[in-house]
Specification:
300 residues; alpha+beta; Jelly Rolls; 2 domains; 6-stranded mixed sheet; disordered N terminus; MalM; Maltose operon periplasmic protein; signal
């Protein structure tokens, strides 16, 4: 009940002033992903990842394959917990010699419905460093909606990607630049894209909202260049709960201050259910400020 109340309450309190444009962007992103038959998705073996974790994956000819429409070659499938707060996922595709796997990522909700799509252009080339090699790399920030057990991450490449290449930086140039020497005038290698490759995923979790919302929306404080992609269910929210009955007497100032402070602490700790219970109890006892405190705490 609390989970439903959270979504309804947040919508009814006008917390989603930026939501319409963001929702449309998310729908367009998910709709641009190549179609995959639902049975194909359910037949995959999904590797569970429990953060914090770093997982290295070798995609070879014996790996799971999808060859439907634009999708071509080996794929990697992961199941991530949806009850650990926001998930930050750094996906790295490591170049081997003059070849590299160009990853695309499709995020699916608990019902295996497409929720967000990250094309290969989201994973740009990163030149080698002292302890890193040539790679394609990008970071995803996802926030699963309340009530889900897990979400899914499918990594694949496409026919268009296989027709493309990646311009790399000659290791000698990268080393010279790194140590402050003169950069030699030598050609840079070009990596062709292949249907197999080597991936590395680093997954961490934190109890606060991230950039991508899986199922419900809160305002983001991210800068414009990191505008959030909102994904998940676009079904109409449940009707807002009726306002609590007004008590016969107003709440004492000391009690009001205690409830407001407790609501702030609960939201900051990521325990929104507790914050809602405190809000309900405060208003039942006559608080005139608890609702405003809850809204301002969630917006931060």
């Amino acid at each position: 009940m609390m989970k439903k109340n959270l979504l309804s309450l947040c919508l009814s309190l006008s917390l989603l002033t930026a939501a319409p444009a963001v929702v449309n962007a998310a729908q367009n992103d998910a709709n641009t992903a190549p179609a995959i038959a639902s049975q194909t998705l359910r037949n995959l073996s999904w590797t569970p990842l429990v953060p914090p974790v770093t997982q290295d994956v070798t995609l070879g000819m014996s790996s799971a394959q999808i060859n439907q429409g634009q999708i071509q070659g080996a794929v990697a499938a992961f199941a991530l917990p949806a009850d650990r707060g926001s998930l930050e996922i750094t996906l790295t595709s490591i170049a081997t010699g003059k070849t590299v796997y160009a990853p695309n990522v499709l995020v699916l909700d608990e019902q295996m419905r497409p929720a967000a799509f990250y094309p290969s252009s989201y994973f740009p080339y990163e030149k080698p460093g002292i302890v890193s090699s040539d790679r394609l790399e990008g970071t995803l920030k996802l926030t699963p909606a309340l009530g889900q057990k897990q979400i899914y991450l499918l990594v694949y490449t496409t026919r268009n990607d296989l027709d493309a290449t990646t311009q790399m930086v000659n290791p000698a140039k990268a080393y010279a630049a790194g140590v402050g020497n003169a950069v030699p005038d030598i050609p840079d290698p070009v990596a062709r894209h292949t249907p197999t490759g080597t991936l590395s995923l680093k997954v961490t979790a934190e109890q606060k909202a991230g950039n991508v919302m899986i199922g419900q929306i809160f305002p983001s404080s991210a800068p414009a260049e990191a505008a959030p992609v909102v994904v998940g269910s676009t079904q109409a929210p449940a009707p807002a709960p009726a306002a609590p009955a007004k008590p016969s007497e107003p709440m004492l100032d000391d009690s009001d201050a205690w409830f407001n402070e407790s609501i702030k602490k609960a939201v900051k700790a990521g325990d929104v259910d507790k914050a809602l219970k405190l809000l309900d109890e405060a208003e039942r006892l006559g608080s005139k400020t608890a609702r405003k405190t809850f809204i301002e705490s969630v917006k931060k």
